[in-house]
Design the sequence.
């Protein structure tokens, strides 16, 4: 695969961001490769209703 | 050749949980974070609770795209600068990256397991 990138003039005023979160990127510059992964797990069984039981420490 | 980033000013309130605020160039960025996010109806927490090994989300492999053909990339930078006046960010969190400058590869990973514990409806609070 042949790929040509032409970078012309980039002039930005102000950038206002609330949150860069969960493996996200804000890049002012060049890169070759970006790989961002996020796993966010909230299954129904993670809602536990009952007397308070501490989580297993595994130790 | 990479371009030069010209930024007038940068204002960041917080950088948390394995995140990076980088001014300058770097080759690889590899951020990892994992979190057990436990919310309880009553704030009862022991310091030694929880184990990442008990939950599959922290060990499950994440598939990556397979590059199965050689690529030839040509960059033509007509303007050697990227100009930005002001950057204002409230928060950078959970394996995120904010960079003024260039890099070769970015590899970020964040894994979060949410658990909510509520008391039975009849129980006195």
Sequence:
């Amino acid at each position: 695969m042949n790929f040509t990138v032409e970078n012309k003039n980039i002039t930005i005023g102000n950038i206002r961001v609330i949150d860069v979160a969960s493996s996200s990127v804000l890049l002012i510059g060049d890169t070759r490769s970006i790989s961002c992964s996020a796993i966010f797990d909230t299954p129904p069984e993670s809602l536990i209703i009952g007397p308070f039981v501490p989580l297993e420490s595994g130790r | 050749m990479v371009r030069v980033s010209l930024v007038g000013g940068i204002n960041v309130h917080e950088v948390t949980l394995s995140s990076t605020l980088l001014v300058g160039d770097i080759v690889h960025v590899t951020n990892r974070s994992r979190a057990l996010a436990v919310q309880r109806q009553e704030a009862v927490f022991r310091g030694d609770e929880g184990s990442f090994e008990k939950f599959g989300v922290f060990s499950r492999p994440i598939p990556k795209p397979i590059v199965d053909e050689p690529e030839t990339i040509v960059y033509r930078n007509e303007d050697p600068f990227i100009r930005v006046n002001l950057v204002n960010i409230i928060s950078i969190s959970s394996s995120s990256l904010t960079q003024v400058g260039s890099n070769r590869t970015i590899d970020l990973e964040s894994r979060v397991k949410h658990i909510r514990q509520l008391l039975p409806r009849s129980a006195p609070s």
